[in-house]
C-alpha cells in the first residue's frame, strides 16, 4: 500500500462468482426453483403468476429475473393496504414471509455452491487471490458469497478484513451489499461468543459475523437471516455498518493508482453503485473530501482495467469513470491466462 492510499483496488461482481459455478441474475430463479420445497414452490408460484400471468415454471423464458421479482414483491408489500379493500390470495404478512424465505433459500444454496467451488477451485482463482494478497489490495465486492472471504483470510477473518479497522494494513474485502456471514444482533444472539465477532454497533444496532463461515441454519434447525441487501431496484441501506462500508469504498477509490473491474456489469438500475464509484473517481481528479469541506491534494487519474466478456459493462463503467479505460472483452479466467495479472 502506498502512502497516498491503496495502490490497487479490485471491483468485483457476479461475473467472478459465475466463473465458479454460481448463477447469474438472468438464470438464478429457474435454477433455484427446482431446489424449493413443495410448499415453497406453491406459495411463490402464486406471487410470480400474479405479477406475470404468462408464467410457466417449465419454461425458462417466462421467469422474471430475481431482481425483477423481488422488486415487484417489495412494491406489492409497500402498496398492499393502499390497493386492496381486503387480503386476496395472500396477506401482506404472508407476502413478506415468502420474500424472506426466498432470500433464505438463496443464501443456503450459495453456501452449498461455495463448498463445491472450493473443493475443486480453478488455478486462475488461486492466482487472483495470491495477487490480491501480494498487492495488499482493497477489494470492493458487490457479491454476498464467501469465496474471497475464505481464501483471503480463512480462520484469521476479523472486522479489519472487511475494512472496518484502518489501524491494520494489508488486503481487505469491502462488501457494500452485505455478506452471507453477517447477522444483526437479534439473529446472532443465540450464538456462542467463540462462533462470532462484532463488526460494528452495539445493542439492537450491533452487527456480528460468523467465524468459521457457515450456512444460515444450525444443527438444531435454527435459521439465521443474513444481513444482505436484496437485489431490488430501490435498494435500502440502513444502519451504521453500511454507512461505514460506503465511506470506505469511496476512500479507497479516491486514492487508487489502479482499479480493476472484474466481472462487474454495473447494471443501469444500480444507481447506488454508480454514485459511489463516481464519488471515488471524482476525488481522484479533485482531491479526497475531508471533514470541514476542504479537499486533499488530488492523486490523479488511476489506470482503469475492465474485464468482462459482454460489451455493455465496458461502456457503462467507462461513462462512470470519466476517462479512457483498458477494456478486455474476456472472461476473468482467460484474462488471467493471457497474463492480465502482474
In short:
The protein has 13 helices and nine strands.
Please write the string of helix (H) and strand (E) elements.
EHHHHHHHEHEEHEEHEHEHEH
Please give the number of β-strands. Answer: 9
Backbone structural class: alpha/beta
Provide the helix percentage. Answer: 40-55%
- Indicate the CATH topology of the largest domain: Rossmann fold
Which segments are poorly predicted (pLDDT under 50) over 5 or more consecutive residues?
A: none
Distance between the termini: 16 Å
Strand order of the largest sheet: 3-2-1-7-8-9
Average pLDDT works out at: 88
Total domains: 2
Q: Kindly estimate the percentage of residues that lie in beta strands according to DSSP.
A: 5-15%
**What would CATH call the homologous superfamily of the largest domain?**
TPP-binding domain
Shape: globular
Largest sheet: 6 strands, parallel
User: Count of helices?
Assistant: 13
Under CATH at level 1, the class of the largest domain stands as Alpha Beta
Specify the CATH architecture of the largest domain.
Answer: 3-Layer(aba) Sandwich
Q: Report Rg.
A: 21 Å
Amino acid at each position: 500500500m502506498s502512502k497516498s492510499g491503496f495502490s490497487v483496488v479490485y471491483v468485483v461482481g457476479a461475473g467472478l462468482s459465475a466463473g465458479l459455478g454460481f448463477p447469474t441474475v438472468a438464470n438464478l430463479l429457474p435454477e433455484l426453483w427446482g431446489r424449493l420445497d413443495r410448499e415453497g414452490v406453491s406459495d411463490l408460484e402464486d406471487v410470480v403468476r400474479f405479477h406475470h400471468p404468462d408464467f410457466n415454471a417449465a419454461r425458462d423464458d417466462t421467469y422474471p429475473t430475481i431482481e425483477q421479482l423481488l422488486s415487484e414483491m417489495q412494491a406489492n408489500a409497500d402498496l398492499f393496504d393502499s390497493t386492496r379493500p381486503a387480503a386476496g390470495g395472500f396477506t401482506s404478512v404472508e407476502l413478506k414471509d415468502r420474500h424472506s424465505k426466498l432470500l433464505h433459500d438463496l443464501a443456503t444454496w450459495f453456501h452449498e455452491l461455495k463448498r463445491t467451488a472450493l473443493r475443486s477451485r480453478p488455478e486462475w482463482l488461486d492466482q487472483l487471490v495470491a495477487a490480491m494478497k501480494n498487492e495488499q489490495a482493497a477489494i470492493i465486492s458487490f457479491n454476498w458469497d464467501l469465496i474471497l472471504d475464505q481464501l483471503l483470510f480463512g480462520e484469521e477473518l476479523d472486522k479489519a478484513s472487511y475494512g472496518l479497522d484502518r489501524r491494520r494494513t494489508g488486503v481487505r474485502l469491502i462488501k457494500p451489499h452485505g455478506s452471507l456471514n453477517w447477522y444483526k444482533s437479534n439473529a446472532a444472539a443465540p450464538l456462542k461468543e467463540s462462533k462470532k465477532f462484532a463488526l460494528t454497533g452495539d445493542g439492537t444496532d450491533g452487527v456480528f459475523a460468523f467465524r468459521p463461515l457457515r450456512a444460515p441454519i444450525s444443527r438444531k434447525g435454527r435459521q439465521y437471516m443474513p444481513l444482505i441487501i436484496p437485489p431490488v431496484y430501490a435498494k435500502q441501506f440502513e444502519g451504521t455498518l453500511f454507512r461505514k462500508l460506503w465511506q470506505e469504498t469511496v476512500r479507497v477509490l479516491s486514492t487508487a493508482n489502479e482499479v480493476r473491474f472484474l466481472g462487474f456489469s454495473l447494471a443501469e438500475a444500480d444507481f447506488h453503485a454508480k454514485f459511489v464509484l463516481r464519488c471515488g473517481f471524482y476525488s481522484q481528479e479533485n482531491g479526497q473530501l475531508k471533514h470541514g469541506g476542504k479537499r486533499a491534494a488530488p492523486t490523479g487519474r488511476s489506470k482503469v482495467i475492465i474485464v468482462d466478456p459482454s460489451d455493455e459493462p465496458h461502456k457503462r463503467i467507462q461513462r462512470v469513470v470519466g476517462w479512457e479505460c483498458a477494456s478486455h472483452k474476456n472472461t476473468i479466467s482467460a484474462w488471467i491466462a493471457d497474463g492480465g495479472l502482474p
